[in-house]
Automatic annotation (TrEMBL):
Family: Belongs to the acetyltransferase family. GNAT subfamily.
Alphabetic keyword roster: Acyltransferase, Transferase
SUPFAM superfamilies: Acyl-CoA N-acyltransferases (Nat)
Gene Ontology MF annotations: N-acetyltransferase activity
Residue ranges of every copy of the N-acetyltransferase domain listed in the record: 10-141
Name of the protein this chain belongs to: N-acetyltransferase domain-containing protein
Pfam families recorded: Acetyltransf_3
Gene3D superfamilies given in the database record: 3.40.630.30
Record's keyword annotation contains Transferase: yes
InterPro entries: Acyl_CoA_acyltransferase (IPR016181), GNAT_dom (IPR000182), NAT9-like (IPR039135)
């Protein structure tokens, strides 16, 4: 997917490349971002190693979310990831999907929803994904809605 560009109305998605590592490292220095993404603090060197590892792993797709309307040009504001999950059912292609809008100026504008739609469509068309799993930290508010609202009935 290194040459793939997914084009949306308000965002574009581009593969996570070496040029994005410093920005991603800055985002991940924020304790709140790390809490919401269940991430551990990494050194810049470790971030570069991860980028190379993810780039080579055919089961991981990581794209940078570019906001087309931030300061008049496309600017990186977050990322969206698709991880293929090894399931017992050999016919099913299942993926874990996650999105992060790290730049506060681009939050609550529907960009995460658009990024998820683009990635789901990409997964179906190019990877044959038939089902998706999304994990949301209970304390995370999705578009102002508590994550607990998305849990199956009887769970909290």
């Amino acid at each position: 997917n290194e040459k793939t560009r997914l084009v949306g109305d308000r965002i574009d998605l581009v593969p996570y490349c070496k040029q994005h590592v410093v920005q991603n490292h800055e985002w991940m220095r924020d304790p709140w971002i790390r809490e919401m993404t269940c991430s551990e603090p990494l050194t810049l060197e470790e971030e570069y190693e991860n980028q190379v590892s993810w780039h080579l792993d055919e089961h991981k797709m990581t794209f940078i979310v570019l906001d087309k309307n931030l300061g008049g040009e496309c600017q990186p504001v977050g990322d969206v990831n698709l991880f293929l999950i090894d399931e017992d059912d050999e016919d099913a292609v299942v993926a874990e999907i996650e999105v992060m809008i790290a730049d506060p100026r681009s939050r609550r504008k529907g960009l995460a929803a658009e990024a998820l739609k683009l990635m789901v469509a990409y997964g179906v068309k190019h990877l044959g994904c038939s089902s998706y799993v999304a994990k949301i930290v209970e304390s995370n508010e999705v578009g102002g809605i508590p994550a607990t609202r998305f849990l199956p009935a009887g769970q909290s």
